[in-house]
Amino acid sequence: MSKNLNRRPINRRDFLKIAGGTLATAAGASLLPGYLRKNVLKPSSVEVVSAQSIPPDIYMAGTDGWIYLPPTPNIYLAGSLPGEPSVIHPDDLAPGPFNAYMFGFRDITGMSESQKLGQKMKAQHSAPLFWTNQEEEFRLQLTNLGLAMRPDLIDAHTLHWHGFRNAIPFFDGEPAGSISVPIGRDFTYVYRAHEAGTYMYHCHVEDVEHVHMGMTGLVFVRPVQDGTNIGGFTKFAYNCGDGSTGYDREFAMFLSEFWAESHWADSHVQLPEWTDYKPDFYMLNGRVYPDTLEPNAPINMAESLHTLRVERDANGDLMAPAGRPDLQYQPHSSLVTCNAGERVLLRFANLGFERQSMSLTGIDMRVVGKDATLLRGRNGHDFSFNTNTIPIGPGESYDAIFEAPPHSGTGAYDTYLLFNRNYKGSNNLDGSGYGGQMTEVRVYPGTLGPQSLPNT
């Protein structure tokens, strides 16, 4: 892919924008203290250009694709005539075993150019889970492959790291002050995360549509404190200094929604009316219960340095979870497994449009962080709290830790439900019982080995 994002000549309007922006920046910078000017004005234009020539840590592509959601009951287009229903789920254009149209991202790190192009129409949901280390420079290259089902939509894409602090506008991914990636082009974002915690990311072009259509994922930052032994722990959610955010295992819980009418409209070259928004499915890591309990797709443990990298076939396509070819593009499980007595970190993030309420039966969670911020005051006062239910608004993230209770002594493991207390978020609209944003916490008597990667 070419890294020249825009070959058209600069016109008079562009020149005035650049000149005006430069003057405004210079004038504003003269009023700022030196330490603030350093954050606002760095990197320079030379550094921005040179950043594009340094190999990224992760390569991602934006495109469209198909996923699987429970096919019954059929969901009909609002306003269809009695006796003449228009079925919008399952989508009649979907290739089996899939039935729902999506936009999304794919991890294309290490692929050849032909393999990268072959991932068009093979987006995954939720988008690849990735992480970085606090205060380390991190690069992510985004390629826009275009939309196979909608070649008429020539939308650019961005990768906006929601809640990221001290990001200069050029790398922010918000297209009004940043840069968007046209079809067939690449751009490398450069980050230096100053704050540990759980975040999320999404495309910020036509963001109502692109966010809901699936161009969303979870990202987190590991604290500098990681690797030191404090209170018997070496892994931490934050730089707590006292081991209070230490954990043995971690699991990402990404909440999203699926309004069948909008997805059907996009695949059928129609225009949805977003003011009619009414989700039909509520997803956890891109799946609905009971599929949330199905295993991960095969993970490449050696290559999962910054992301939970799914194994690929010779063409670069994702390998499906064992026995579930329909979940090929929904590779991440939400099943939580742990040994009795272990501390487990749950990283919640919500990029749906509705407020949800996640509850864990029989076990208290201690909320230690919100929106990538340790719940501790400047004077050291501890604002963390115990609860069994966490309300999570759109665009919010929470970090919660629980200690697994003793094993009952019967069976291979004890089971606790983690679910959305909002009933419509915990069913699949078919009246058959539980569904939606629900999973299980399984507590073993000590038979599990140590965890090396999140959600494994």
| CATH level 3 topology of the largest domain | Immunoglobulin-like
Sheet-strand content, in percent, reads 25-35%
Mean pLDDT: 88
Indicate the CATH architecture of the largest domain: Sandwich
Q: Could you state the CATH homologous superfamily of the largest domain? A: Cupredoxins -  blue copper proteins
Give the helices and strands as they follow along the chain.
HHHEEEEHEEEEEHEEHEEEEEEEEEEE
Question: What percent of the residues sit in helical stretches (DSSP H or I)?
Answer: 10-25%
What's the level 1 CATH class of the largest domain? Mainly Beta
* Count of helical regions: 6
Gist of the model:
The chain has helices at 12-29, 34-41, 45-51, 113-117, 207-213, 260-267, and strands at residues 58-67, 75-76, 87-89, 100-107, 130-133, 137-144, 160-162, 186-192, 197-202, 216-222, 249-258, 281-284, 336-339, 343-350, 356-360, 365-370, 373-374, 385-387, 389-392, 397-403, 414-420, 438-444. With 456 residues, the protein is of the alpha+beta class. Strand 16 and strand 17 (373-374) form a beta hairpin.
